[in-house]
Design goal:
There is one protein chain. By secondary structure, the protein is mainly α. The chain is built from 5 helices and 3 strands, in the order αβαααββα. It has a 3-stranded parallel sheet with strand order 2-1-3, with helices on one face. It is rod-shaped, with a radius of gyration of 30 Å.
Length: 168
């Protein structure tokens, strides 16, 4: 009978003991990312590329508009073969613009990922170091996963990670 009670007590007390040993902290990765100088450089690089793509798009759009206006201004007596050729030119220009916009979007997304991946890698390494040094079981990124409740004992390691990375 005593053994049964001891087993029941062990089953009830063990999870409580394990929970008492867990240390959980929070971190705001987006706040850290925004404060890093590398993210500012990445944003500037992307903005520059975006402006270059925008300038090229405007040239393409101006060429399209010029062709369309020329078609609209054509005399009604122009032969059908010439009209058809002009329509094909306008359609080709339209397809080129659509393809350019699609490749631009893809290129900017790829470039963004290439620029941001090493920055997030640095942040992850710093969070791991803080977690190892602080003995945390979990560090939850509150910028991605909102925490429903954080009590008085909740630890926010965002400032510690920033300090480790040398940012304010």
């Amino acid at each position: 009978m005593k053994i049964k009670r001891l087993l029941v007590m062990a089953v009830v007390v063990m999870p409580l003991a394990v929970m008492a040993q867990m240390k959980i902290a929070t971190v705001d990765v987006q706040q850290i990312f925004a404060a890093m100088p590398e993210s500012t450089q990445a944003r500037e690089t992307l903005d520059k590329a975006s402006q270059q793509y925008k300038a090229e798009y405007e040239l393409m759009q101006a060429d399209f508009n010029r062709k369309y206006d020329a078609y609209q201004a054509m005399d009604k007596n122009v032969p059908a073969t010439i009209r058809d050729r002009r329509i094909r030119e306008i359609q080709d220009s339209d397809r080129e613009i659509a393809a350019f916009l699609a490749s631009t979007k893809s290129s900017l997304e790829t470039q963004k990922q290439e620029l941001e991946t090493p920055i997030y890698g640095k942040i992850a390494a710093a969070i791991k170091q803080i977690g190892d040094e602080g003995g945390y079981t979990y560090i939850i990124d509150v910028s991605k996963t909102p925490v429903a409740y954080a009590g008085e004992g909740a630890v926010d390691v965002t400032a510690a990670v920033k300090q480790l990375l040398g940012i304010e």
